[in-house]
Amino acid sequence: MNILVYGLGAVGTVFAIFLKEAGHTVYGKTKEKYIPYLKDKTLQVQGIWGNHQAKLDGVVASIEELKGKSFDLIIITVKSYDTKTAIQDIKKIINDKTYILLAQNGYGNYETAKQYIPAEQILLARVIFGAKLLKPGIAEITVNADDVVIGQPENLGNEEEIKRLIDVIKNAGIPARFSPDVYQILWDKILYNSALNPLGAILECSYGELANDPHTRETMNSIVREIFEVAKANGIKLRWNIPDDYLEHFYENLIPPTEKHYPSMYYDIREGKRTEIDALNGAIVKLAKQAGIDVPVNETITNLLKFKESKHLKK
Question: Which of 29, 132, 170, 189 is catalytic?
């Protein structure tokens, strides 16, 4: 299978290495500034899934370098604020048989992508393994809470073809499964990330520390309750009927395996990078305004994170 991984951050590096190790033709698209680190096209992964290394078939900074090549699957792993640029870029090389897998965080990636690409070619992935980039080309997998869940949000496309693509990822060593309810499952992660990521970044602490303190716990509870209100007001169906049911699952099942984990936003702030707050709590604030309701906790968290981001952002 011919595969392009668009974005060689932590998650993209993991996908690229495992799929190349499995014998597929794999190219990577990265930013020009990272090309010097990847001249030999060799990437490495370490951590809880063992040590892996693979030499990709090509690493490019411009999609123009891939014109004339045909891809069966393009995996988008860039930050949510770069989704529009990425989708407009890959439009130059896709055909009607190419599937695009959005392996990203937050709300709005699918909604953006289908403005430019037929919806039946777009798949969503809920990625819940934790990975961090040690330096360009070298990633560490720190935690895995569940399979990568993949599906088509509107149940479009050929289900058997989609399942075959998922088997490719699963057989490469990345735990994955199909679900027709991927959109709802992705919202589970939006709940999870919105409650934990900005607070962990602002307060510079782990998920377990947040869950164990009564003050931050109440703040996270409020974030989740506001998201349930926003989802209901916007006709978004969640997998949980009431916030208390989700919160019980959150504290009992989701936090324990990731209690030592620090959010990606924490590392983004430390490295002077832009965060994905606008696709998480910021997106909740936007959806709330559209519905005419107030979400003071999510709005406050968004504003605080944006302030901290601005103080550290590299120009």
Answer: 189
